[in-house]
Amino acid sequence: MQFTQTPERTAKKILQANNWNLELAIDSYYQNPNTTSSSGPTNQDAIHAIFDQFRQPSDAPDAFSIGATMAYFEALGLQLDDVTLVPLSKALGSESMGEFSRKGFTDGWMQLGADSLPKMQEKLQELRQSLDTNEEYFKEVYKWTFGWARPAGTKALPLDSAIEWWRLLLQSRFGDNGHLERWTEFLNDKWKKSISKDTWNMFYEFIVSAKADPTLTGYDENGSYPSTIDGYVDYYRNLEQ
Hints:
This protein has helices at residues 8-17, 22-31, 44-54, 66-76, 85-91, 102-112, 117-133, 135-149, 159-174, 179-191, 197-212, 227-240; strands at 63-64, 100-101. The protein is mostly helical. The protein has a two-stranded antiparallel ribbon with strand order 1-2.
C-alpha cells in the first residue's frame, strides 16, 4: 500500500483512526510519525481490564457511569477543564458527556493503539497536538461536540452550557479579538435562548472569518448565517458607533 511509505497494516490502522479520511490520515501521520512505529500489537484484553478497573459496582457490565469516568480521568491526569477530554470522548465513541460503553472504549483505544495508562496518557498528548495543529480535525471535533453535549431528547444546547463549551473550545484559538467575549455578552443580554445546531455550526465559520476581518466590514447580512449571528453583528456594530 502506497501510504507515506508505511506498511499496509500500519496504513490501515491510521486510516481507521481517521474514519477512512485519507487527507486527515496523512496529516495525522506527518504530525505524529513516531506513533505509527511497530511496538507490538495492542492488547485488547488489557483494555478490557482497564475498563473493568474503573467501572463502578453499580454500573452495568458494559458501561461507564459518570463516577467511573471521573475516576478514569483522574488516573489519566485529565482535568475537566482540559479541552482534550472532547477529542478523547469522540475517539472512544462516547454518546453523551461522561459516559462510555465497553465497545466504544475498547474499539477506540485499539484504533489509537494504547493498552495501558501510560500509553493512553501519551495518546492524550497526541490528540491535543492534533487539535492544536490540524484545522480540519478541530472543526470535526467542534461540530461533534454539539450532539455529545446536548441533553438527551432535546434538539438544542442550553445557553449556559453552549457558552461554557465555546469558551473551552475556542478561547485559546479565537479569543484575542474580543468577539468571543462580546458574543457571550450578546447571548446573555439579548438572545437569552438555547442554541440550535445550525447556530453552533455556523458560529465556527463566523469566528474563523472574524479572525481575518475583526471589524466585520465584510459581513454579508444576506448570506447563510442564522439570525442569531445577524443579531450579534448588529449588536457589535452598535457598540462600535
